[in-house]
């Protein structure tokens, strides 16, 4: 059985990967299963750079295939902020409420039609001795003027999904997992893994 490490300590994220990959015959482990889980500093300037950095660092240490993700919110009226700083936008300690407050404060007076934004997720798959593969998933939305809904986490209460007529925080988990940025990236990764079946291809260029 092929072993695959998910470079995350987020139980929700890890569960999503397990649901996708275990039926395909993979043994899925995460940083929660490792005694000495490395902490990789995210020094990249893009989601892709951070995902590759995490995946390759841990893959090189463990000599095993690793999937890492980096994701966040990009708001057009704020020139793409908070972007790679999404988790710590309002300060070094991760605080969802303070992050939301900062976004709403910065968007004060910005009309509805100019509050366009997207959640982005980049997944990187690093395999020892092979070229790292990346896929990106996106979910488009509009930033509301106040938080709405109790579900989800992060910026979900202020991210309005037009096709659903609700914020991310009003969606049921199953509904969110059909349209979210991570779900879209996972679908692309699933196609790659289905296509190759085994990690024994010559290169990652196709």
* Overall radius of gyration: 18 Å
CATH topology-level name? Maf protein
Q: Taking all residues together, what is the mean pLDDT? A: 88
Amino- and carboxy-terminal Cα gap? 25 Å
Shape annotation: globular
SSE string, helices as H and strands as E: EHEHEHEEEEHH
Structure explained in plain terms:
By secondary structure, the chain is an alpha/beta fold. It has a single domain, classed as Maf protein (Alpha-Beta Complex), CATH 3.90.950. Helices cover 30% and strands 23% of the residues. The chain is built from five helices and seven strands, in the order βαβαβαββββαα. A seven-stranded mixed sheet has the order 2-1-3-4-5-6-7. Strand 1 (2-6), helix 1 and strand 2 (26-30) form a beta-alpha-beta unit. Helix 4 crosses helix 5 (181-196). The protein is globular, with a radius of gyration of 18 Å. The two termini are 25 Å apart. Residues 200-206 have low confidence and may be disordered.
